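Record type: ASSEMBLY
Status: queued
Input:
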Amino acid sequence: MFSTYVHTLLVFLLLAVLVFLSVSAVLVPVMDWLRVGVNFLDYPFVAVFGFVKNFSGILWNVKNIAQENVLLTKQVEKLTADVAALERVGEENVFLREGLGFRTSQRRELIPVGVVAEVAENTSAMDLLTSSKVAINALVVPGGASGLVRGEHGLGLTFDLVSQNEVINPGDELLTSGLGGQFPKDLLIGEVSRITSGESELFQRASVLPATNYRDLNFLFVLKP
Amino acid sequence: MNNKYLIYAAALFLLFLVHSSAVKVFQGSSFVPELLLLAVIIFAAMNSLPETLWFSFGAGFLWEIFSAEFFGAHIFALLICGITAYLATRNLTAQELAVPTAVFLVIGATLLRPAVVWVYQVGVSSLDLATAIPVGVFLNGELFYTVLVNLAIFYLLRAGIRYFPALNK
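Status: finished
Output:
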């Protein structure tokens, strides 16, 4: 019995000593070395557990893939039904347009390049849209905001004088509005690339990504206003 | 040192490697069995109190290597668990680990260990040696899963010991 008390006392005394050494930071490097040693020794076990963890992860993923597959199959069925319905609506639309005599504008396939400035006997010179001499009335699609597309000294295009009440977003298309009569309506100028004006300014302003590279054109049509 | 102690020391170190590896790989998971705690319970049921004290001390020290709590928390906790398991198997029940006894011991020790660690942390934080950790970090609903996995592994370990007759001397 005495021995048991002595052992109990010794064990708790040793614990107290170790805690004291730990608080005094004497034990810390020893524990660090032990951790490094254990990291080396437990490598095979970590590898095995890592494999088990990854394998269970794969099984879990397979389960998720099966659920995802069911979901996607349902979506495909729904979309197939939607496409069939839309095709029917499209056919009906074509039939109604023909019946009512509607014509779809093809103008968006044409791109304005500039304005003929000088005409000689066999050649002519033109001001590109990027020239600061050219300004076109333009409309934003979607939304219908109107403004003026101007050249930036041969460097690019700016969409300007757009009311603050209108909403324009990067990616919106810019079409000629036909106002002023210089350009026909619905020619594709480009798309809004970035809004450059602040909220405090009177009008909105945006830089425009042209629909084509004006320096790399081979054939042009001349349209008479 | 006789064979029995060598085998126990080797088994304890092996369990420590498995335990620390599992904790490392499955960080934060409640499904990692507390092998060192189970070893202490089994040892306490089969050996004398002085032996149980030193074994618990060794197991606790090994636990300290991969734990983040203030040094000594796990040594203290496993000492308390070892003494409790020893007293329970000598005074409350028969020494043979019948199913109800084993279930009682494993559940009790699984809950007692984090409780003692928390009490220890409160003690050292009151001495300004460490910051206090909320009790919910140690005692929470996830212990239920730890109890289940400990029970399952406990019987595997107990069955494994039967293959080493030297340990039962």
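Annotation: The mean pLDDT of chain A is 84.
Annotation: The helical segments of chain A are 2-23, 28-41, 43-100.
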